[in-house]
Amino acid sequence: SPDDSQLQELSHPYGNHPLALHLLLQTIQDDWEGNITAFLKQNTLTLANLIESYLKKQHSNLSETSHKILTALAVQTQPLTLTDIQRYFTSLDELQELPELLQELATQTLVENNTPETYTLHPNLRNPITQIFIAKQLNQRGYKQYCQGDLNTAQQSLLHSLDYQPDFPHAHYNLGSTYEQLGEIDEARKQYQLAANSHSKATHAAINNLSRLEILEGNLQAAIEQILAILPNVSKTGIQASLYKNLGWAYLTQNDYQTALTYLQTALELDEKKATTHFLYAQTLEALNQLTEAQTYWQNGLNYLPAPSQFGIMWRPPELIAWRVLAYQRLQTVSPSKRKKS
Q1: What is the pTM of this model?
Q2: CATH second-level architecture of 46-201?
């Protein structure tokens, strides 16, 4: 472990900021095999470099309220009291958790307690936090434009977001979705892959979308391997359901119908209202010559077709459109009165 003189030599160029020292020791351990002497001889990292890297890593882990606290402190050059910070919040829940979150941020050395009553940021934190805030606002704007069907404008907003934060996983994911709707599949794949590599909250959703693209392109084994590699670590029920659905789809396409049924059944147990899963289950039953049972799932798929979004726009993937047509064809002998209008 470093002695006091080494710690002083490390931290002095960075204003003895405790976060900088923590990041330096972590960098030396990760990139220099713990060799402090070698690092000191070649170090060219600025405090801004260290802090910016740290903030970007922390970005996905911080709560929405924590982001608001940091943003409030970033736009003010003077220390703020708790009362000052409270003016940025209207939610009772947020107001109640402010003292605890401020203490957490102080423990992480993101926020400094100048006195017991006031809080501020280290000057070197202001610029990177402001950039992250702008990137987040542009990402939210781009996502809203995407939902409204204004895809070209959404693309520009999301690209602009990435100008401020090049490794922002949520912007990469949303840009991937935008490119997919624009029909630029290669670009969509690139953006999904960047989100998948981020080890963030967007990772599993991005891999789910990548596996779907692999299936559409006939790369079935690649899709299966992608999904199985992450499935034990996925905690969100919606993403779990989509991954199991994609597994069932891949095995159905490989003509492994029993395995497909197993995965599709699990997907339905996780989310019984996903139209694509019902359509795939119907196709699998048909492949097993269970035609009567399949009709129930064709009808369920029609009943659970997604409704328009809050903005009135709904993009339906091409396979869903094709399966919807197929469902109507399969059910054409069923009385219209027994069919839920969709």
Answers
A1: 0.77
A2: Alpha Horseshoe (1.25)
